[in-house]
Design a protein that fits this description.
alpha+beta, homodimer, elongated, 10 strands, Arc Repressor Mutant, subunit A, Nucleoside Triphosphate Pyrophosphohydrolase, 2 domains, three-stranded antiparallel beta sheet, 232 residues, DNA-binding
DNA sequence: TCAAAAGTGTTTCGGGTACACCCATGT
DNA sequence: ACATGGGTGTACCCGAAACACTTTTGA
């Protein structure tokens, strides 16, 4: 059962939420970190997060803390795993429910709010500093989950701007999956899913302009309801 | 971060672990439930579980509670998801970290130990009673996870006895995946993985005797290390 | 000899993969 | 004109799926 009769006689660990926020840009995949303003690990980089309040659900707490510390708008948030090794926090028993989240524009400069966060900053996944607590492990679990999930659910679009080129989408998948993909096969496969809508806009840069596409959420929802599985 | 400087000023929810234990037998897939001996939900069926102690990890707590309440030997245990809706427990804020587990022999009669459990009993998944708290939802999440995971990891063997026939294995997959499988294709596929060892034993019953096989854990570990993916 | 479950091959089809050249633009 | 990235079609191969009869035992 969930609780005995004398619930209040039991030792009560503190419960926090921590969040691994991924962003994607020219430099590849990035993770948002905040610099701790207080002991322990003062000055160290850590995941944004904080205590769960008495009257809020876990997802709710994750969103609130993230909003307070960074002001970011999330396009995806999912519970990841709970970490509760007895000594993971030097101050005492702290169990954390970890989440991972995706943002569409890594551009938006993160704001600061609570006293806990001295600064917030994006780090490329290949250049992460050493992290407080067991946060390095949490990031690693999140990265693995993202890699596993991106092939079965259309969450890759939550890392791209509203309009994107097929080349951008392909590069995203190459970075997340850590392998190269064939251009022609990738495009054929993606378009055959019929969940992208072609816009009439072009993106200009060096070389031939590229067509911009949009993820058609409604078409995806319809297809999914009919038993369609994403898979890429 | 995981905790602020004034950790002990924060409200502290109680933290429990709850466990969905699956067994497989002639009647199909079953779940182990215990009957609550105390309020709230006294007399109701619920998942085995209990409070996390100050000095133990989450997995450890799940194993301990399960051992205390049922005496079962688990062949597989994995963290499932954490449930923390503010009102999920009428006594106050209780966050539970749910696990799911598999046992090889559904035969072993579960023992009882703690005062919380008045009785323990296997229920077929198709005939579950209504459950205390949000445990019905937890079971549902566990069932979905099992269905999803059994195709990519060789956890099906954790639901079968040490030695089993290919027909038993097939029926297990049919039950878990909720669809029929072709006998010849299934056998070919399973044997082609080269992770089963043929024993020299036969299982007699009505009809032609069936060859018994064993899951070759070492062969699987070797293959996995070389990048082999299970998939069935 | 009958009932019941075990065991066994071949063909077809679709999707995955490999692969090279032309196109549209900016400089 | 050249450099840069965008865009396109075909052939092959392998694994998935469909499908029916023989074998071995107990009753």
């Amino acid at each position: 059962m969930s609780a005995g009769q004398h619930a209040y006689e039991w030792p009560r660990p503190a419960v926090t939420v921590d969040c691994v926020v991924f962003g994607f840009g020219a430099a590849g995949l990035s993770v948002l970190l905040i610099q701790r303003g207080e002991a322990p690990f003062e000055g160290s980089w850590a995941l944004p997060g904080g205590f769960v309040r008495e009257d809020e659900g876990l997802d709710e707490a994750a969103r609130r803390e993230l909003g307070e510390e960074t002001g970011l708008t999330l396009s995806f948030l999912e519970q990841l795993y709970s970490f509760g090794a007895p000594q993971r926090d030097p101050r005492g028993r702290v169990i954390t429910v970890a989440f991972y989240a995706l943002v569409q524009e890594l551009a938006q400069p993160p704001l600061l709010a609570t006293g806990d966060a001295a600064e917030a900053q994006w780090f490329q996944e290949t250049e992460l500093p050493s992290l407080a607590f067991d946060h390095a492990e949490i990031v690693s679990v999140a990265r693995t989950r993202l890699k596993g999930k991106v092939r079965w659910q259309p969450i890759g679009f939550d890392l791209l701007p509203e309009h994107f080129t097929l080349s951008e989408l392909q590069r995203l998948y190459e970075v997340v999956l850590e392998r190269e993909l064939d251009k022609r096969n990738f495009r054929r496969k993606v378009l055959s899913l019929e969940i992208l809508e072609e816009t009439d806009e072009l993106q200009r840069g060096t070389g031939r302009p590229a067509r911009l596409y949009r993820f058609d959420k409604a078409a995806y929802a319809r297809a999914e309801a009919e038993g369609f599985v994403f898979e890429l």
